[in-house]
Design brief:
18% strand; cell membrane; membrane; SURF1-like protein; alpha+beta; transmembrane; 40% helix; 258 residues
Length: 258
């Protein structure tokens, strides 16, 4: 059989099969790397408190790698721009969201100040911080939520969505952080509100089994490409053997009966 395999036609087909196998193996490696990358835990550095400006900058979308990062930011809250959200986790029926202007950059930043069971108390708590004095807020920084995540209608909102705040805040100069801070108990106490129950983000590793399945699938395809070449060569060899036997039988003299 290998005498057939060494013919130029089948050598060329073998090279093509090897190229296809290499491509399939490369795709399998890519899928395997994705399954491992998707399973990596978030970095533990989020528990090291940093200045907000060391973590991100205005206009930059917050990535999942810094979700829950402990930060410190100094600024002033804008009077009249307190927003009340409902239906959120962390405590209370109503949560007050303040409009903080970062002293360092002059950019706007939504800050979840605290919660109350009455809307009037939540509004009063948010406005209690808008006396023009600089405040240092400590908390965790999270990626911005989308207005599409709002679960309520009729003027009630549930998402911390900077994309909506740009239309509702009175004092806004188009510079904004694309994320928000959940303030700790110190800021909530200063506003006479309940502190938001916030904790470190989970560090669980969730392996992406779907990508692993795809990786195995591509490896199977790679092996099948080489096997297909082998099957074609073997079929050609068997046909030649069959043709040779038939030719030999045809060449044999026919016995003469007496």
């Amino acid at each position: 059989m290998w005498a057939v395999a060494r013919r130029p036609r089948w050598i060329a087909l073998l090279l093509l099969a090897l190229v296809l196998a290499g491509v399939f193996a490369g795709l399998g490696k890519w899928q395997l790397e994705r399954s491992i990358a998707n399973g990596k835990p978030l970095p533990a550095t989020t528990e090291t408190r940093k200045s907000l400006d060391d973590v991100t900058e205005p206009g930059r979308a917050a990535s999942e790698s810094i979700a829950g990062q402990r930060v410190t930011v100094t600024g002033t809250f804008v009077a009249g721009d307190t927003t009340i959200l409902i239906g959120r986790s962390g405590g209370g029926t109503y949560q007050a969201i303040g409009h903080l202007v970062d002293t360092e950059t002059g950019a706007s930043l939504p800050v979840v100040i605290g919660w109350a069971d009455q809307r009037r108390q939540a509004e009063a708590g948010g406005e209690r911080l808008t006396d023009g004095q600089e405040l240092t807020v400590q908390g965790r920084y999270y990626p911005a939520e989308s207005p599409d995540q709002d679960a309520y209608s009729k003027g009630e909102y549930s998402a911390v969505a900077p994309a909506r705040f740009v239309n509702t805040w009175k004092a806004f100069d188009d510079r904004m952080y694309i994320g928000y801070v959940v303030a700790d108990g110190t800021t909530a106490k200063a506003a006479d509100l309940g502190a938001i129950a916030d904790r470190a983000p989970t560090r669980e590793v969730r392996f992406d089994w779907l990508n692993l399945f795809y990786a195995i699938e591509w490896v199977v395809f790679a092996g099948f490409a080489v096997f297909l070449w082998y099957r074609f060569v073997k079929d050609a060899w068997e046909r030649e053997q069959e043709d040779a036997r038939e030719a030999a039988q045809a060449a044999e003299p026919t016995p003469v009966r007496r």
